[in-house]
């Protein structure tokens, strides 16, 4: 034991509790025939919880953690604290990048050796912990070598380094029986066309992804391969901007049946969408895989990665997840970090517990709305005209024939209310 969290006890479900506990999230509560834990599949993000130092664009580190340091002893201590936190939260999953868990070595070989040692530690700890791996991924954005991208870098040596890094992370994810592998293209974009060959970069990104899919099959990885949509930051133009952009990319390279998406709330907002829009589109396209549940400060123009605290937003998000049939390999990862003034160890636990409660409240509201057909019945009514034989026949007809019918039948459509305020009021009754 590291004693980082002192005498804090594992959290339990206690609706009337005063200290850190779950007031709404009961992992054993049955919702729509399944335990809530199995529906929500919560995961802790290793990077924000244990690697984030409390900095922001205008100031550096504010946190003082006993594992901060660029040596293996610090990395081992970090792993000890991480699994203690997983146990305190009784969380079923975690996620990591390679750079979160190991120090950078003087060479690729040394970095790989450091990484594999920590994976050994994870494997041993997972033998006695309930916490599994939701997904692994590679950090192809922090080091200065990635300043012009990874798969889209103009330097082929960076492409090679990136490929080797992803291979190592996929091997580790497979070894730890991870449910997914995620590609997060934080720098797969460009600042200006003055120095960019867009066609070549996009082609290289497609070839890189094909290699990832092929390698997953080669090693027998049975989880899902996911891409995370990432707009605007840090580069001005991103090749993986939103769900629609990614789906077009996947279609171009014949990967639409091989790769799904991991959608983050904060990224959806930066792309000019709502979270539920991105989830609904992914559902309609058949590529919804997993989610990162966080929020942005809507007065800021960047990704602030805050814990969720808005029940109506989470309810609408989980409504779309449920309409898609729920998670299979995916889950709810908290890609969220403490505010730089939240210094205490207990803040880490409180932040996650509060977020899990918010998600539970939203999820139960979503499940009840779906069960009651509170939104589905009005939606069906609005489109009921399309169920008529003549409307269906029109879709396989032609413009001339449709025109003749309009004239012959004297069709004169009148507008009907979309009843948005009524439907918003319905949602409010549930949340």
TrEMBL record:
Q: Does the keyword Metal-binding apply?
A: yes
Residues engaged in binding Mg(2+) 1: 228, 264, 292, 335
Identify which residues the record assigns to the active site.
97, 100
Q: Which reaction does it catalyse?
A: alpha-D-xylose = alpha-D-xylulofuranose
Q: Can you say where in the cell this protein is located?
A: Cytoplasm
Cofactor(s) needed for function: Mg(2+)
- Subunit structure, briefly? Homotetramer.
> Does the keyword section mention Metal-binding?
yes
Specify the species: Pseudooceanicola antarcticus
What taxonomic lineage is listed for the species of origin?
Answer: Bacteria, Pseudomonadati, Pseudomonadota, Alphaproteobacteria, Rhodobacterales
Q: Which GO terms describe its molecular function?
A: magnesium ion binding; xylose isomerase activity
Q: Which family does it belong to?
A: Belongs to the xylose isomerase family.
Cofactor binding note: Binds 2 magnesium ions per subunit.
Q: Which PROSITE patterns match?
A: XYLOSE_ISOMERASE
Which keywords are on file for this protein? Carbohydrate metabolism, Cytoplasm, Isomerase, Magnesium, Metal-binding, Xylose metabolism
Q: Which GO terms describe its biological process?
A: D-xylose metabolic process
Record's protein name: Xylose isomerase
């Amino acid at each position: 034991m590291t004693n980082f969290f002192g005498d804090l006890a594992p959290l339990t479900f206690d609706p009337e509790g005063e200290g850190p506990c779950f007031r709404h999230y009961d992992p054993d509560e049955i919702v729509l025939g399944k335990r809530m834990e199995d529906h929500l599949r919560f995961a802790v993000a290793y990077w924000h919880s244990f690697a984030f130092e409390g900095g922001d664009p205008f100031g550096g580190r504010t946190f003082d953690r006993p594992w901060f340091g660029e040596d293996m002893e610090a990395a081992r201590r970090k792993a000890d604290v991480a699994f203690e936190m997983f146990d305190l939260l009784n969380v079923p999953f975690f996620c990591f990048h390679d750079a979160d868990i190991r120090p950078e070595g003087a060479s690729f070989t040394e970095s790989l050796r450091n990484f594999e040692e920590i994976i050994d530690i994870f494997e041993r700890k997972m033998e006695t912990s309930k916490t599994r791996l939701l997904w692994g991924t590679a950090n192809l954005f922090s080091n200065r070598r990635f300043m012009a991208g990874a798969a889209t870098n103009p330097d082929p040596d960076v492409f090679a380094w990136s490929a080797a890094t992803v291979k190592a992370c996929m091997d580790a994810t497979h070894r730890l029986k991870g449910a997914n592998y995620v590609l997060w293209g934080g720098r797969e974009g460009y600042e200006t066309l003055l120095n960019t060959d867009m066609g070549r970069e996009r082609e290289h990104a497609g070839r890189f992804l094909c290699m990832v899919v092929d390698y997953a099959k080669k090693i027998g990885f049975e989880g899902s391969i996911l891409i995370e949509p990432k707009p605007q930051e840090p580069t001005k133009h991103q090749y993986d901007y939103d769900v629609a952009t990614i789906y077009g990319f996947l279609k171009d390279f014949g990967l639409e049946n091989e790769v799904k998406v991991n959608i983050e709330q904060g990224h959806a907002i930066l792309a000019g969408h709502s979270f539920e829009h991105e989830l609904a589109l992914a559902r309609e396209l058949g590529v919804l895989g997993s989610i990162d549940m966080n929020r942005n400060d809507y007065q800021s123009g960047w990704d602030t990665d805050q814990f969720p605290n808005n029940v109506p937003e989470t309810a609408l998000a989980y409504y779309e997840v449920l309409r898609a049939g729920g998670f299979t390999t995916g889950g709810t990862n908290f890609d969220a970090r403490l505010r730089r003034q939240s210094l205490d160890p207990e803040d880490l636990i409180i932040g996650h517990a509060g977020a899990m409660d918010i998600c539970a409240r939203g999820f139960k509201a979503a499940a009840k709305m779906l069960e009651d057909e509170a939104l589905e019945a009005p939606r069906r009514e609005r489109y009921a005209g399309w169920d008529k034989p003549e409307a269906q026949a029109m879709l396989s007809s032609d413009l001339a024939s449709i025109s003749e019918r309009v004239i012959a039948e004297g069709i004169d459509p009148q507008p009907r209310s979309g009843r948005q305020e009524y439907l918003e009021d319905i949602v409010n009754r549930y949340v």
